[in-house]
Give the backbone structure.
Amino acid sequence: MKNKDTFENKLQKLQEIVEKLDSAEEPIEDLIKSYEEGMKIAGDCRTFLETAENKIIDITKKYSEKNN
């Protein structure tokens, strides 16, 4: 079973929300809910990227130290 909660899927959902907000064809209440959902997803993506960056830094340090 494929994980629907991947970083790429979150980015896709965020893009869909941005398009919905840009169109402004829905009631303001729905747009506010979409905005809130988008902010949560953006935060999740930011956390994922920070974690990935830290892993890359750790790996780089690990192998740089071994080569010195």
The chain has two helices and no strands. The radius of gyration is 18 Å. The chain has a mean pLDDT of 92. The longest helix spans residues 28-67.
